[in-house]
Design a protein that fits this description.
178 residues; mainly alpha; Arp2/3 complex 21 kDa subunit ARPC3; 6 helices; 2 strands; 79% helix
Amino acid sequence: MKSAFYTRLLCRSALLIAAEIVLNRFCSINTMGLKIGVAFLPMALCGALYGPWVGAACYAAADLIGAMLFPTGPYFPGFTFSVAMIGAVFGFTLRGAPDRWETGRERLSAAVRIAAAAVADCGIGLFLNTLWIDMLYGGGYKYWFISRIPQYAIILPACLVLLPAVVKLAGRLRAGEG
């Protein structure tokens, strides 16, 4: 029975990594210092399904594979560290979140977890990735920080709207595993 779990884990993780690479590299608005897209969704699902360690490993693997196959600039390991942290946050906050919101307590628990995941995702991206961009290109942290605020003003509401669907999907996928 354990081999079936590991096979399912490996197959789903590989599919989610591939989906993240496609969404990140081909289906997002990407300019120097700004990236707007929904590539976080497959990795949020991975974290919700399998927890923080698998979420971190898959997001880091997706970043490394995407950077090797479809580079958009110089590779910098700080970005891989950032996405691994975000994958771990998705696992810590979304794993075990109630997928059925029949009671007020379940709704509150899910809302708090989803809000924490969205804020952490945007916080890591805004503060830490801005540091990496400044280290790579210069220009001053304050300049990059201010120029990236509109990006996260778009991404935060998108996270808050889309992550509940991820939590519900993770619950359905877990329920289907029997």
